[in-house]
Amino acid sequence: MLTFVTGNKNKFKEVSKILEGKIEIENQDIDAPEVQGSIEDVARAKCEYAARIVNGPTITEDTALCFNALNGLPGVYIKWFVKGIGLDGLNKLLVAFEDKSADAICTFAYTEGPNKPVHILQGVCSGKIVNPRGPPTFGWDSVFEPDEQQSDQPKTFAEMDPSEKNQISHRAKALKKLQDFLLK
Ligand SMILES: O=c1[nH]c(=O)c2ncn([C@@H]3O[C@H](COP(=O)(O)OP(=O)(O)OP(=O)(O)O)[C@@H](O)[C@H]3O)c2[nH]1
Ligand SMILES: [Mg+2]
């Protein structure tokens, strides 16, 4: 059994749906400390910490939202930006810039257990920051409009059916790589 350590129920729901029984996972809610540093540094430290508690095969996931006009910030600190300034605040951060583009980056970290190597698998979904549209169910979904769209009427992640988001999202792309890695 593979343990996905996350305190975020939405993440676990999406990952379970995308994997659809291809890989069995269980959830453990451990509040792993998140260090400062690069996306990879944060992902690696979180996974190493979680694996010590799980004491077996462990995955963790870290999501960054990187504004191009701000050279990649807020990045891995997006959670604290949303908490601190809200979705409206994210839009205000970009008022002075014409460039509203952003990359949603999902980073899975996998290890067989404590003191084993940590493997990093990443997926990127490019898009832009817009005024909130759609239900505020998951983080910043309502202000992120991915470039890849299925119709002429662009939708934010929040306006998409879960199945639509799960085909194009940063998480789906990273998970595809994780699946290929684990099944090979
Ligand atoms: O609209 C969204 N669509 C997504 O697809 C998505 N994925 C993550 N997030 C949010 O971005 C921050 C990442 O921080 P994060 O990676 O540390 O997650 P977390 O602390 O919630 O869980 P975890 O660290 O226990 O796994 C948190 O605020 C998450 O709610 C998303 N918001
Ligand atoms: Mg976290």
Automatic annotation (TrEMBL):
GO terms for cellular component: cytoplasm; nucleus. One of its GO terms (molecular function) is dITP diphosphatase activity. Binds 1 divalent metal cation per subunit; can use either Mg(2+) or Mn(2+). Residues 146-165 are annotated as: Disordered. It holds the Pfam family Ham1p_like. The keyword Oxidoreductase does not apply. Its EC number is 3.6.1.66. Its cofactor is Mg(2+); Mn(2+). Its main location: cytoplasm. Keywords: Cytoplasm, Hydrolase, Magnesium, Manganese, Metal-binding, Nucleotide metabolism, Nucleotide-binding, Nucleus. GO terms for biological process: deoxyribonucleoside triphosphate catabolic process; nucleotide metabolic process. Mg(2+) binds at E34, D62. InterPro entries: ITPase (IPR027502), ITPase-like_fam (IPR029001), RdgB/HAM1 (IPR002637). It catalyses: N(6)-hydroxy-dATP + H2O = N(6)-hydroxy-dAMP + diphosphate + H(+); ITP + H2O = IMP + diphosphate + H(+); XTP + H2O = XMP + diphosphate + H(+); dITP + H2O = dIMP + diphosphate + H(+). It is found in: Cytoplasm; Nucleus. CDD domains: HAM1 (cd00515). SUPFAM superfamilies: ITPase-like. HAMAP family: HAM1_NTPase. Belongs to the HAM1 NTPase family. Pyrophosphatase that hydrolyzes non-canonical purine nucleotides such as inosine triphosphate (ITP), deoxyinosine triphosphate (dITP) or xanthosine 5'-triphosphate (XTP) to their respective monophosphate derivatives. The enzyme does not distinguish between the deoxy- and ribose forms. Probably excludes non-canonical purines from RNA and DNA precursor pools, thus preventing their incorporation into RNA and DNA and avoiding chromosomal lesions. Pyrophosphatase that hydrolyzes the non-canonical purine nucleotides inosine triphosphate (ITP), deoxyinosine triphosphate (dITP) as well as 2'-deoxy-N-6-hydroxylaminopurine triphosphate (dHAPTP) and xanthosine 5'-triphosphate (XTP) to their respective monophosphate derivatives. The enzyme does not distinguish between the deoxy- and ribose forms. Probably excludes non-canonical purines from RNA and DNA precursor pools, thus preventing their incorporation into RNA and DNA and avoiding chromosomal lesions. Homodimer. This is Inosine triphosphate pyrophosphatase. The gene is HAM1.
